[in-house]
Design goal:
By secondary structure, this protein is an alpha/beta fold. It has four domains: about 140 residues, Rossmann fold; about 70 residues; about 170 residues, HAD superfamily/HAD-like (Rossmann fold), CATH 3.40.50; about 80 residues. The protein has 22 helices and 16 strands.
């Protein structure tokens, strides 16, 4: 179901304070010469008090007065003066860079926007903060815990926001940074998106900054999607390494591959020492390949680069098996968990699929496609080890389009490397470029010239981008 509404946490996502309120309070105590009592002594009581304040059961001044008393401020007059300073500090908010632009763009794309926020302050005060940042005109719904009477991660506050917006959970996404609040949104049935997120946050999608939200496939506007389909995309080419498949270390498996290489070559060195030397030589080869954008054949790889000190007539016939085993010394390779389902569904929707991949092996990828039952779905497979040229050179992309019988403008490339995959596909004139990026690498910035059309976090996100071709054609 398409996303129609996007709901944001406020503090930590849209705005922040120059200094956290907790730190500000501790500095006030230090200024007054008060050594605060350890929080552990009243943590449970403080949590219960905060929950009551978030639900509007007690007023903000009452909450802060109680907190200060817990910390050891005995003088009620001093507490009253400090509460006034804390309130003034709370009113000092600043926009998180890019937040307003992100909201404005999403609003322009036709999404209903809302805020779901925990606060000890009344709704009107929260609105004043949004007004001061120019965010109010962009927000359709404001669900405030003190107004709703429930706070995150209770699903009730999310559901109240959806009710106010006239949306269902399946039509809505929640954007937050805290692990608990994201889990609450998930329990409410919403799609979750983590931004500026905590280390332990888990979500369906991840974005490093508010502006990066604009690249998520679920937040693409309908006009953009229709524009993409107007190009009548026919063929989707997909990379293999870190896209269709992932590499997993398995020392026992890798050690066996090293042993078999040493046995096949007939070296007297230990498998570990022999393969360590191969690794050094392979790095030299890779440097040459990166600089020239050439890819050696398996025969040339072994006779010229990896084992030039062995008789060519002995090594050349073994090159294919040696390459196959050498790849295994790096670990096991597994298809992405959703790979087969996505491949079958894209084919069912009328798209032709292909593979364009930089690789030193000629046998491994065709064998994997055969073993996993995917060979019939990839009639076009272009491997740099056979073609002789590698990404980001446009030649290998153009070769893929030629073999598939499609104009480059009607082809898509799905890869994982901003420099290699975006640059090459753009030079070849491909109609669209999509990057599959690991959420763990979400903080890595992408240079403007290497920005793709879409960033996805899992292969199944492709299904949000490519509707059935038959339906798209019928609508045109």
């Amino acid at each position: 179901m398409a996303i129609k509404g996007i709901f944001f946490d406020a503090a930590g996502v849209l705005y922040r304070r120059p200094e956290s309120t907790n730190l500000f309070v501790l500095k006030l105590l230090e200024r007054e010469g008060i050594v605060p009592r350890p929080v552990d002594a009243f943590r449970d009581r403080l949590g219960a008090l905060r929950a009551d304040a978030n639900k509007g059961v007690i007023a903000p001044d009452e909450y802060w007065d109680a907190v200060l008393e817990m910390y050891g401020v005995g003088d009620p007059n001093l507490r009253k003066a400090l509460v006034a300073e804390i309130n003034a500090h709370s009113d000092t908010v600043e926009e998180i860079p890019g937040a307003r632009q992100a909201l404005a763009t999403l609003k322009q794309r036709g999404f209903r926007l809302g805020i779901v926020t925990d606060t000890i302050y009344p709704l009107e005060r929260k609105r004043r903060w949004l007004d001061s940042l120019g965010l109010s005109p962009l927000v359709d719904v404001l669900a405030c815990s003190t107004d709703v009477g429930a706070h995150k991660p209770d699903p009730a506050i999310y559901l109240r926001a959806l009710e106010m917006a006239g949306l269902t959970p399946g039509e809505s996404a929640f954007v937050g940074h805290d692990a608990e609040e994201l889990e609450g949104a998930r329990k409410a049935g919403m799609t979750t998106v983590a931004v500026n997120y905590d280390r332990d946050a888990r979500a369906d999608y991840y974005a490093a900054t508010p502006l990066d939200l604009l690249d998520l496939p679920i937040f693409k506007d309908h006009a953009r999607l229709e524009g993409d389909m107007e190009r009548d995309i026919e063929v989707i080419f997909i990379d293999v390494g870190a896209t269709l498949r992932v590499l997993v270390e398995d020392e026992e498996y890798q050690a066996e591959a090293r042993r078999r290489i040493a046995e096949l070559v007939g070296t007297q060195e230990s498998p570990e020492a022999f393969c360590a030397e191969l690794d050094k030589r392979y790095k030299t080869y890779r440097k040459w390949a990166f600089e020239t954008l050439n890819e050696a054949s398996e025969r040339e790889l072994w006779t010229r680069w990896l084992l030039p000190d062995y008789p060519e007539e002995k090594i050349a016939p073994l090159a294919g098996e040696l390459t196959f085993l050498y790849r295994q010394t790096m670990g096991r390779r597994f298809a992405q968990p959703d790979a087969k389902d996505v491949v079958l569904e894209l084919t069912r929707r009328g798209y032709r699929l292909g593979i364009i991949s930089n690789t030193i092996t000629e046998r491994e990828i065709p064998q994997w496609l055969e073993e996993d039952g995917l060979k019939p779905y990839f009639p076009t497979v272009v491997l740099s080890s056979i073609f002789g040229r590698r990404k980001p050179g446009p030649e290998i992309y153009l070769e893929g389009a030629r073999r598939a019988g499609v104009e480059p403008a009607r082809a898509v490339y799905v890869g994982d490397n901003p420099t290699r995959d975006v640059e090459g596909a753009r030079k070849a004139g491909f109609g669209m470029v999509i990057l599959l990026l690991d959420p763990a690498e979400a903080d890595e910035p992408i240079a403007e010239e290497n920005k793709p059309d879409y960033i996805i976090r899992r292969l199944s996100d492709l299904l949000d981008i490519f509707p059935p071709r038959q339906a798209a054609q019928a609508a045109s």
